[in-house]
Write a structure and sequence with these properties.
Elements (H helix, E strand, L loop, with lengths): L21 E12 L2 E13 L4 E5 L6 H8 L7 E6 L2 E2 L5 H11 E5 L10 H11 L6 H11 L14 H14 L4 E5 L7 H18 L3 E5 L2 H4 L4 E6 L2 E7 L5 H10 L2
Parallel strand pairs: 3-8, 3-9, 6-7, 7-8
Antiparallel strand pairs: 1-2, 1-4, 4-5, 9-10
Helix pairs in contact: 3-5, 4-5, 5-6
Keywords: ATP-binding, Nucleotide-binding, Transport
GO molecular function: ATP binding; ATP hydrolysis activity; transmembrane transporter activity
InterPro entries: AAA+_ATPase, ABC_transporter-like_ATP-bd, ABC_transporter-like_CS, ABC_transpr_LolD-like, MacB-like_ATP-bd, P-loop_NTPase
Length: 259
């Protein structure tokens, strides 16, 4: 369904709770580039239901990565409100944001971001260890089994392929039972087969584990794995689509050609 620029795409409960695990209201993010003010986000309002897979798509410069960074507490908005897992992020200190990210967010990055001196198993358990919590070994073994990396747990990142490293990163993101997993171009450094395996697992984590996943991508093929696709252009949500029966490639191409 298309949206007029600036219109809210929150349906159902508002930002203060209800059915959204993450929500943003009238989000604005500006940057100063010399004497020019760049508006990366222009009044974005959007809510994300739990146990759903949402793709945030759009061309380079559309604001999709900025939106994800603000939703995840990696960056602060110029104005507007965000709630994540029942916590309002607006006005939190850096220390408080770090605690929210540690306790409520899992991350999967294009560049894997594994610590090279640690084994795969140590990398996977790291978020739980840093939070001072006990690792749920049954869950860890279940996730490792789903990802097919049980025989690679003693290996360091340099001994793993790109696809294996990303699967370790996926396990690390999930083992702490986060409210939300944010995936930033998770297939960007992978070959097509490894990329498909990663997307399949993100899909399964929603279906089998009840995980909420929000993924940023410029790839229509990757976006098609999601339940829902938000298309951004010029810092605004211009399309809010259910993937079933929708030509995501065409929708993204139309928006790109209309810029």
């Amino acid at each position: 369904m298309a949206r007029e620029p600036g219109m809210s795409v929150i349906d159902g409960a508002g930002i203060d709770g209800g059915e959204h695990i993450v929500a943003a209201e009238n989000l604005v993010k500006t940057y100063q580039q010399g004497r020019t003010e760049i508006k990366a986000l222009d009044g974005v309002s959007v809510g994300f239901a739990p146990a759903r897979f949402t793709a945030i798509a759009g061309p380079s410069g559309s604001g999709k990565s900025t939106l994800m960074h603000c939703l995840a507490g990696l960056d602060t908005a110029t104005s507007g409100r965000i709630t994540l897992g029942g916590t309002e992020l607006t006005g939190l200190s850096d220390r408080e944001l770090t605690r929210v990210r540690r306790d409520k967010v899992g991350f999967v990055f294009q560049s894997f971001n594994l610590l090279p001196q640690l084994t795969a198993l140590e990398n996977i358990a790291l978020p739980v260890t840093m939070a001072g919590r006990r690792t749920d070994h049954d869950l860890l073994q279940h996730i490792v089994g789903l990802l097919g990396i049980g025989n690679r747990l003693s290996h360091r990142p340099s001994e793993l392929s790109g696809g294996q490293q990303q699967r370790v990163a996926l396990a690390r993101a999930l083992v702490a039972r986060p409210a939300v997993v944010f995936a930033d171009e998770p297939t960007g450094n992978l070959d097509s087969q490894s990329g498909t395996e990663v997307l399949d697992f993100l899909r399964r984590s929603v279906q089998d584990l009840g995980q909420t996943v929000i993924m940023v991508t410029h790839d229509p093929g990757a976006a098609a794995y999601a339940d829902r696709v938000l298309i951004l252009a010029d810092g605004r949500v211009v399309e809010d689509l259910a993937t079933s029966g929708t030509d995501i490639t065409r929708a993204m191409q139309v928006r790109r050609s209309n810029r």
